[in-house]
Amino acid sequence: PGAAPYGNFPNYSRFHPPEERLRLLPAGLLRSLFPTEPRPLLGLDVGCNSGVTWGLCGRRDGDRGGGGPPHPAAGPDLQLLCCDIDPALVARARQGSPFPTSISFATLDIMEPSARAALLGSYLSRFGRSGFDIGFCMSLTMWIHLHHGDGGLRRFLALLASLCSFLLVEPQPWKCYRAAARRLRRLGRRDFDHFSSLGIQGDMAREVTQILTRDCSMQLVACFGSTSWDRRLLLFKASRQRGREAWEQEE
């Protein structure tokens, strides 16, 4: 792949197929997390790329995609907001979505407070809600970290923790940081602003877990194993009541 300095690879799903993630998730995951939820669940997918990974979460229990096996997330009705920084990827995702009534796509730099507040506020107000039941953050933490530094990574994780009752995270390992920097150098581009000054290094799944549990009042519920590209799927649960003001405030 090319440099894609924000992780916005146009053909990401070809070399990291979404089915690889889905096979790691237990059957009926949403049903087990929300066994008595009468209202539709709200989900937030940050860094959705072209939408193929979590677009399938729009399936209902009765939709098996032509008689195939149930989707691992099958269960309660899920309304999903998918956002990405790349408008071309968002347009592709929107065009190819098989569930236009339950999945919304939007272009968003999640680290830009005013744009974030406008989009999330508008979406949540449609349902009379102040936060999301579950959030998905697939292979995005590295890009936030490289562009916004250690402080930016902490703010990003704190934001997701304030927004979501449950959070499924797939952190990139440190070797991916080095590979991303090498790709930029091979293309003759300037290095990431924060790469050489990052203090949070090493086992990034452990570092992300420590930030979420120590600083963001979340609990690690499960590790569903690792994908074939060596990234762990970690599920966290909020251990305190989140507040609407957390995502509205300026940083």
From TrEMBL:
The alphabetical list of record keywords is: Cytoplasm, Methyltransferase, S-adenosyl-L-methionine, Transferase
Gene Ontology biological process: methylation; negative regulation of pre-miRNA processing
Give all residue intervals belonging to the Bin3-type SAM domain: 19-241
Which reaction does this enzyme catalyse, per its entry?
A: a 5'-end 5'-phospho-ribonucleoside-RNA + S-adenosyl-L-methionine = a 5'-end (5'-methylphospho)-ribonucleoside-RNA + S-adenosyl-L-homocysteine; a 5'-end 5'-phospho-ribonucleoside-RNA + 2 S-adenosyl-L-methionine = a 5'-end (5'-bismethylphospho)-ribonucleoside-RNA + 2 S-adenosyl-L-homocysteine
Cell location: Cytoplasm
| Coiled-coil stretches | none
Q: Give the EC number(s) under which this enzyme is classified.
A: 2.1.1.-
SUPFAM superfamilies, A to Z? S-adenosyl-L-methionine-dependent methyltransferases
| Subcellular location, principal | cytoplasm
Give the first-level EC class, as a single word.
transferase
Enumerate the InterPro entries for this protein: Bin3-like, Bin3_C, BIN3_SAM-bd_dom, SAM-dependent_MTases_sf
Q: Which Gene3D superfamilies match?
A: Vaccinia Virus protein VP39
User: Which terms in the GO cellular component ontology are assigned?
Assistant: cytoplasm
Gene Ontology MF term list: O-methyltransferase activity; RNA methyltransferase activity
Top-level taxon: Eukaryota
Q: What does this protein do?
A: O-methyltransferase that specifically monomethylates 5'-monophosphate of cytoplasmic histidyl tRNA (tRNA(His)), acting as a capping enzyme by protecting tRNA(His) from cleavage by DICER1. Also able, with less efficiently, to methylate the 5' monophosphate of a subset of pre-miRNAs, acting as a negative regulator of miRNA processing. The 5' monophosphate of pre-miRNAs is recognized by DICER1 and is required for pre-miRNAs processing: methylation at this position reduces the processing of pre-miRNAs by DICER1.
The family line of this record is: Belongs to the methyltransferase superfamily.
The name on file for this protein is RNA methyltransferase
Q: Which organism is it from?
A: Indicator maculatus (spotted honeyguide)
Taxonomy, top ranks, is:
Eukaryota, Metazoa, Chordata, Craniata, Vertebrata
